[in-house]
Amino acid sequence: MSDISYRDISVNGLWKNNPAIVQLLGLCPLLAVTGSVINALGMGLATMLVLTISNTCVSMIRSFASDAIRLPAFVMIIAAAVTCIELLMQAFAYELFQILGIFLPLITTNCVILGRADAFACKNKVLPAMYDGFIMGVGFGVILMLLGAVREVIGTGAIFANMDLLFGEGAKAWKIVLVDDYTAVLVAILPPGAFIFTGMIIALKNIIDDGIKKREAAKSVNATPTSRRVRVTGNIS
């Protein structure tokens, strides 16, 4: 597996094997904290940092960790990374830390992180493992932000509210009100709305994949050389 290219890692993390909409891992934070873009961004950044750090550390110790202590060691590394991220958020984004609440420490039990440590990081060198963690975190975070944007727009008629929780006082002006006097659609902000929109995103991805497969199949059919009948006249001596 060490000969896997960075392009393959990127395509897998962002599209073909996206942890949120293909592997369907990490659904608890996906459904619980994506009521707004800022919440989704905070959780996405935290998950991406933990994935990158844990994959890097797991790859570094892969030659020393026996099978007997492999999984406990991975969990200890992930828990240490989550604790560091929690402390950083308490120091620099305390209000967002409080909003994300229990879902921050629960990153330790996120199947995406332990799955990548066991399936990729412990079998590859440090740089590919670190990049895999980063790109998987980006893929997961993009889906979180997409879901957060859809839910915030439909739920409140505005987007980018409370961005100052992460970017400081100057970001208060980033809020965009799309519809004045908008009647809030409560179901979009609640977990049932997250289920509905997640299903729509998965369905959209499947439609795109089917379209790509059909185009590739049509190209392969057109590229297949047709048999030709060669008419030979005259005598062969």
From TrEMBL:
Transmembrane segments: 20-51, 71-93, 99-117, 129-150, 182-204
Gene Ontology CC entries for this record: endomembrane system; plasma membrane
Its EC number(s): 7.-.-.-
Pfam families recorded: Rnf-Nqr (PF02508)
Topology within the bilayer: Multi-pass membrane protein
GO BP annotation list: electron transport chain
Enzyme class: translocase
Alphabetic keyword roster: Cell inner membrane, Cell membrane, Electron transport, Membrane, Translocase, Transmembrane, Transmembrane helix, Transport
Localisation per UniProt entry: Cell inner membrane; Endomembrane system
InterPro entries: NqrDE/RnfAE (IPR003667), RnfE (IPR010968)
Superkingdom of origin organism: Bacteria
Major place of residence: membrane
Assembly notes: The complex is composed of six subunits: RnfA, RnfB, RnfC, RnfD, RnfE and RnfG.
Function: Part of a membrane-bound complex that couples electron transfer with translocation of ions across the membrane.
HAMAP family, A to Z: RsxE_RnfE
Similarity comment: Belongs to the NqrDE/RnfAE family.
Protein name in the entry: Ion-translocating oxidoreductase complex subunit E
Source organism: Zhongshania aliphaticivorans
